[in-house]
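It would be a great kindness if you could assist me with a short task in structural biology. The matter concerns a single protein, recorded as an amino acid sequence and a row of backbone structure tokens. Could you please explain, in whatever detail you think fit, how the structure tokens follow from the sequence? Thank you for your consideration; the sequence and its tokens are set out here:
___
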Amino acid sequence: MRVVTFKIDEELLERLDMLAMKLGIPRSELIREAIISFINNKSSISELARGRRLRVKRIILT
């Protein structure tokens, strides 16, 4: 696994740490899960939008 460094607002870091502590997982694991969730969510939205565009094109063309 690679190491990634980034800047984060102090308040957001505190919220992140509180949630990680509440869930009983390391901060890095929580960040990885959040990134995976974000990417999966955006991918699903993109696929839905692409599917809608295809349907609209079919309706217009037929």
Notes: The radius of gyration is 19 Å. Residues 10-61 form a domain with the Arc Repressor Mutant fold (CATH 1.10.1220). The helical segments are 10-23, 27-61.
